[in-house]
Amino acid sequence: MAAVEITQKRIARTYTIVWLTWIIVQSFILSYIGLGMKQAIIDSVVSNIFTAGLGIILYNILQYYQPENDNFVYLRLWALFLAVADITIVNEVLKYIYYDDEQYLKVLHQSLPIRLCFVFLMLAIITLLTWVQYYYINVQETMERNANTETMVREAELSKLRQQLQPHFLFNSLNSISALAGSKPEEARKMIQQLSDFLRGTLKKDDQQLVTLKEELQHLNLYLEIEKVRFGHRLNTEIHCDESLNGLILPSLLLQPIVENAIKFGLYDTTDDVLIEIYTRLERNELVVEVKNPFDPTTASPKKGTGFGLTSVQRRLYLLYARNNLVKTQSQEKHFTTTIHIPQL
């Protein structure tokens, strides 16, 4: 609204300058064609006061009535009607003021067509400029509303995606705790404590859209400690991250579903020890994270972009950066690699 008020003040100031300038110009024109300077000034002031008043009326009408393109002709007709009314009123007023001056009345009568054309032109210009102004303001307000709506929808979807991930992981962890409670109560208690720390950290991040790579990896380590209790010595992880990258930014809780996907494909179809490797690097102003896991091609069939984890990551990155090419998967020999790119804005 403040921007609208500033625009209106600027337009009002511009109109005022234009009217004052035209009063001076018209006075000299009338003086040039034979009227005295005093008569020319009075004529110009009276004429332009009425025209300015009609211009203000049109300006205010267009605040509440914005015609469509197909009926804009009605505004032109309205401007013509007001111009005729203006000339009629001004003519009667000036005739009343100079009723005994035959020379002035003759000039007044001869100049009526020119006056009518000028007043109509001025009112038409005011109509057009005012319509353009309010049309532009309405477009800007509509765009702002749409942007706010899209932002709210995007944030709601992001929140929903993040909330969907937590029960998925929580149920797996609770099942593991249940299995350990009887045979390995110490490991079950340890896992409960780790799960508590992980969930506490997750709740703290609920209001954070972006975090540093260092924070994300610290949280990821909590998740990996829980998974290592579940799978024991079979699960091994290596995180390769240079300290210079710690300050880079990425969406919070983004890496967990990717690593969970790697664990799923790496461990579920084999009884051997498995190494999950995570590599980070900076490439063309993008943080690149690669998660690599082994798989047995005879028992597993990883597909590009499959699974809720990778789908949710791809959707989150699209909502945040409006790009569909930030998640890539590759299967090579006995290794499956998921690569994500996070633009550094």
Describe the protein in words:
The chain has 345 residues and is an alpha+beta fold. The chain folds into two domains: 153 residues, no CATH class; 177 residues, Histidine kinase-like ATPase, C-terminal domain (Heat Shock Protein 90, 2-Layer Sandwich), CATH 3.30.565.10. It has nine helices and seven strands; from the N terminus they run H-H-H-H-H-H-E-H-E-E-H-E-E-H-E-E. Strand 6 and strand 7 form a beta hairpin.
Number of helical regions: 9
**Largest β-sheet summary:** 5 strands, mixed
Helical residue percent? 55-70%
Report strand order across the widest sheet: 2-4-5-7-6
What is the chain-wise order of helices and strands? Answer: HHHHHHEHEEHEEHEE
CATH superfamily assignment of the largest domain? Histidine kinase-like ATPase, C-terminal domain
| C-alpha geometry | rod-shaped
- Let me know the average pLDDT: 78
Q: Determine the structural class based on helices, strands and strand pairing.
A: alpha+beta
Q: How many domains make up the coordinates?
A: 2
Share of residues in strands: 5-15%
Features:
345 residues; alpha+beta; Heat Shock Protein 90; 2 domains; 7 strands; 67% helix; rod-shaped
